[in-house]
Design brief:
about 725 residues, alpha/beta, 30 helices, 24 strands
């Protein structure tokens, strides 16, 4: 059999060869499949295609890449008479829905499909690394590196260990610190994350297979599809925030049938040990998250229709029939379809006087076609649904490529600043085009790039497990996990000032410090839900009495900090934690216009309204932002029924603020007994939230010093 690969890295020569004779097996990505559909005569290329296999379907489902896949499959079904479709997935809760999304809900393919589920009793062992001394006042981030020496024996006793971190910056810090303390690992240890250049990543993956590396510090870049037999041990640094992600990482060790997977959990602050305990429960119950599929992503549909118009053109009637059979577009109405077709031909209502938005021509026989070569070329450059913050290539002055960093980090650096990246200390020289020039530096530094993906929030499944574990703190010791037992000093301190909530209780704490009046609420629902809930509550309180407060939140709770006390009794009497009128209050409370405006940037890029530039001549993020903001404002003032403008709001509420979860959380609180504790001092539960707010203002050294002083006063 001949096997070919087609991704963004495939050479032009190889692509041309594939066009004339396709290999028996082609391994590709959703984006590359769309690119193939944008080439003339694609129906001849695919006519003998007999099967399409979608691997890691759970990773695509719930993203716009999954929507691209649905559209690609809908086209292949029409042009390949013998097509069979396979979906492969490991960790997913809503299996039945996943099958529906892949095959199309009402289709023959779905009706004739079979679900094959393996009953493998995979043994997964979770071992928590419990600190010798347990702090009573936890705060985010500092405990992790204190436990560095606990990781060394784990690395030494295994052939190869993967250390998973949640963020690229955490990955950089751990790699540096381990080498600093243990220079003997030099040459036997590597780092792997999505911003490190491709050659280095491939070298690391090969070195793991050859068993030449003792340890690799990595991010989710090694979560998926990478099968390494030699990995014996996995260490998870910090809470993974989701059950599926944790199980996926655990499965990287002992990656053979019948072998045990061992994962060590290293907390970055004490409360994460509750997460560790919850994870063990999840492994026992095989509880995994659902992935929520997108509906009516008009931006992806417009991109797809342009793709078809660029290749051989399309007849609306035929394509409308196909897209109506997909999960994402099953509810598209005749009117919406007409609007989309008009948009392709004229641009939207308010833009129709501008030629640049008129991409597609309607030929005499009714076929929609792009005849302008420039438009076709620009469109091919921009196929895809991943719109990151603009990346800037990091290169040595003499030309060696190191990797890429998001623009917003680089924009904060002044020439001469030293930062850590890809395991090296680099001095920033200047920005030229979309490249940052650097040289090696021997100076020590505390600047580590942070990436926008760093703020992961709990999944719904994880929040529920976490609450169940937390409630066990009130059970007899014999019924507690060793992690919960190890937190006894923290719970004891918590009870002195306040209480540890039981399943039917909702805890509110208030106290005063020199920063002002603190009001802390504990829904234990994850950062994303707390962001929305804190804004909602602050808005409702401001309707009772004018008050300004700053908000802070983490995965456990949120804080309203104000310069005068909030009357909590009024909050309870007026039932401000209700799900009634939630949506309209949310829209007023959050800067929902601003959030939708940011979301709209991605929609404008995906739908092709804004061009991101040619390779090596990228357009700066601020220019992209301002072009899309301009369009957003035009639609807001003159065309608020524009489908793409409306989509920005829908996505903000459904995907970013998880409106459904927020509603369920408020309904749960409504039936709980509300316990309001007026405390004299901050409590162990509130401490991580307060210190997180300080983090925004202080450097790491000053923060650590300030927290030490606070802890000293509180533990007297």
């Amino acid at each position: 059999m001949t096997v070919g690969i087609r991704t963004g890295d495939t050479s032009t020569k190889e692509r041309a060869r594939q066009k004339t004779t396709m290999p028996d097996l082609l391994i590709t990505t959703p984006e590359s499949l769309q690119l193939l559909l944008s080439s003339k005569g694609y129906d001849k290329v695919f006519k003998d295609c007999s099967a399409i296999v979608v691997d890691e379907w759970h990773e695509l489902l719930g993203t716009k890449r999954g929507v691209q896949m649905e559209l690609g499959v809908s086209r292949l079904k029409s042009i390949c008479p013998k097509l069979r479709i396979w979906g492969i997935s490991a960790t997913i809760g809503n299996l039945e829905q996943a099958r529906q999304v892949l095959l199309g809900p009402e289709t023959e393919a779905y009706q004739n499909s079979v679900l094959i589920k393996a009953k493998l009793n995979k043994k997964i062992t979770v071992k928590s690394i419990i600190p010798k001394e347990m702090e009573t006042f936890p705060w985010r981030g500092h405990l992790g590196l204190r436990l560095l020496e606990e990781v060394v024996p784990i690395i030494n006793s295994s052939k190869t260990t993967l250390l998973f971190t949640n963020t690229r910056s955490q990955c950089e810090i751990w790699f540096q610190k381990i080498l600093e303390k243990h220079p003997e690992y030099a040459g036997e240890m590597a780092m792997h994350h999505g911003s490190v250049n491709k050659e280095t990543r491939l070298w690391v993956e090969q070195a793991i297979r050859n068993e030449t590396l003792k340890a690799v510090v990595c991010t989710s870049s090694l979560d998926l599809g990478v099968d390494f037999a030699p990995v014996e041990t996995v260490v998870q640094i910090g809470g993974p925030k989701g059950v599926a992600r944790f199980l996926q990482r655990a499965g990287r060790s002992g990656h053979q049938p019948g072998k045990e997977s061992v994962i060590h959990f290293l907390p970055t602050h004490a409360m994460e040990l509750i997460e560790a305990s919850a994870m063990q429960q999840a492994v026992k119950d095989a509880a995994v998250e659902d992935r929520i599929p997108y509906l009516n992503s008009f931006d992806v549909l417009l991109q797809y229709l342009t793709t078809l118009a660029v290749s051989d053109g399309f007849y609306p009637k035929e394509i409308y029939r196909e897209i109506k059979q997909t999960f994402c577009y099953q509810a598209v109405t005749e009117d919406q379809w007409q609007w989309l077709l008009n948009f392709l031909v004229m641009g939207s209502q308010s833009l129709k006087t501008y030629d640049e938005y008129q991409k597609v021509e309607v030929e005499e026989d009714g076929k929609f076609k792009v005849n302008n070569r420039g438009i076709a070329m620009r469109h091919r450059f921009q196929i895809g649904t991943i719109v990151g913050d603009a990346s800037i290539a990091v290169r040595y002055q003499k030309g060696g490529y190191i990797g890429s960093i998001e623009e917003y980090f680089i924009s904060k650096l002044a020439p001469g600043d030293v930062f850590t990246f890809a395991g090296r200390n680099l001095e920033f020289i200047r920005i030229k085009g979309m490249q940052a020039h650097v040289r090696n530096s021997s100076k020590r530094t505390s600047k580590v790039p942070s990436w926008m993906g760093g703020r992961l929030s709990f999944s719904a499944q994880m929040s529920q497990l976490l609450r169940q574990e937390l409630y066990t703190a009130e059970l007899p010791t014999a019924k507690q996990s060793k992690e919960i037992k190890s937190l006894a000093p923290m719970f004891k301190k918590q009870r002195e000032e306040s209480l540890v909530p039981k399943p039917n209780e909702f805890l509110i704490e208030t106290f005063k410090t020199r920063d002002g009046y603190h009001h802390i609420f504990y829904p234990f629902e994850g950062r994303g839900v707390h962001e929305a809930m804190s804004s909602l509550l602050a808005y409702r309180i401001s309707l009772l009495s004018p008050i300004t407060c700053s908000l802070a939140y983490n995965d456990y709770g949120f804080e309203l900090l104000s310069d005068k006390p909030i009357a909590i009794q009024d909050v309870l009497d007026n039932n401000l934690l209700t799900a009634e009128y939630m949506l309209s209050d949310l829209q007023k409370s959050l800067n929902s216009n601003e959030m939708a405006r940011r979301k709209f940037r991605d929609i404008a890029v995906i739908s092709g309204m804004v061009f991101t530039g040619y390779p090596d001549k990228g357009i700066k993020m601020k220019h992209l932002q301002s072009s899309s903001q301009l369009l957003f404002d035009v639609f807001k003032d003159f065309e608020d029924d524009n489908l793409l403008y409306q989509q920005a709001f829908t996505e903000t509420f459904e995907h970013q603020l998880e409106e459904g979860r927020l509603r369920m959380a408020l309904e749960r609180i409504a039936v709980q007994q509300i316990v309001w504790k007026q405390c004299k001092n901050p409590t162990p539960f509130s401490f991580p939230i307060i210190t997180d707010r300080l983090r925004e203002k202080l450097s790491n050294e000053k923060l650590a010093e300030r927290i030490r002083r606070m802890t000293k006063i509180l533990t007297k």
